[in-house]
Amino acid sequence: MNPLSQYCIPFVGLATGKYHYHFEVNDKFFACFEDTEVQKGNLLTDLWLEKQNHLMVFNFSITGSVELLCDLCLEPYQQTLNIEKRLIIKFGAAFEEQTEEILIIPMSESHFDVSQYLYEFIHLGLPMQRKHSENGENGVGCDQETLRKVQQYLKQTNNTESSGSNSPWSALRGLNFEDSQTS
Questions:
Q1: Among 12, 39, 49, 106, which has the highest number of CB atoms less than 10 A from its own CB?
Q2: Contact at 8 Å (CB) between 37 and 56?
Q3: According to the model, what pLDDT value does residue 160 have?
Q4: What one-character DSSP code corresponds to residue 152?
Q5: Which residues pair with 77 in a beta bridge?
Q6: What is the number of other CB atoms lying within 10 angstroms of the CB of residue 25?
Q7: Residue 146: its pLDDT value, please?
């Protein structure tokens, strides 16, 4: 059985009104996507569907945590997520994305698969900088041995560059860039 089949919502038989769906997003979900940055996670998704005559409005509430690699020490850590997104589905002749929030699907469709949208919403909700954080302090909780090795490497690199022995810029130091067309 396809693990993503639970995220396919049948809407043809639904009367006009509001409906609630609850999904768990876990490691099996992320394993269905190739080259995903998130491999592990435990998220709960509440989806409210408001079906109207010629459109549907999906309101997503995604909460939980995913495992990411820290930018500082490259060790895994848990990143808490709290995401609210909306998707409006209109009916038309063919598939078309009008905006990032409005999608047109053919009138012949009977189901709508929200798995790709869940995946995208989760990835868009990830922070730009991924760091261990405890009590609001970034870097607290990092592997201290890794941080020491990084600092040691940075000192060695800075010393090598300042001496100019391996610097790609050392060949340019002797060039004169004065304008030769002075009148």
A1: 49
A2: no
A3: 60
A4: H
A5: 68
A6: 21
A7: 76
176: which residues sit within 8 A by CB, 6+ positions away?
none
**Token pair recorded at residue 60:** 């997503």
C-alpha 49/C-alpha 14 separation (Å) is 10
Unique residue bearing structure tokens 């509001």: 18
pLDDT of residue 81: 96
Specify the amino acid at residue 13.
G
Phi-psi region of 26 (alpha: psi -120 to 50; beta: other; left: phi over 0): beta
Beta-strand pair 41-51/111-113? unpaired
Is the CA virtual torsion 137, 139, 145, 150 positive or negative?
negative
Domain ranges of the chain: 5-137
Q: Comparing 164 with 108, which gets the higher pLDDT?
A: 108
pTM: 0.77
Distance CA 123, CA 66 (A): 10
- HEC per residue, 15-81: CCEEEEEEEEECHHHHHCCCCCCCCCEEEEEEEEEEECCCEEEEEEEEEEEEEEECCCCCCEEEEEE
Environment class of residue 150 by beta-carbon count within 10 Å: exposed (0-12), middle (13-18) or buried (19+)?
Answer: middle
Q: Where are the alpha helices (DSSP H) in the chain?
A: 27-31, 115-124, 144-163
Q: What is the DSSP letter of 123?
A: H
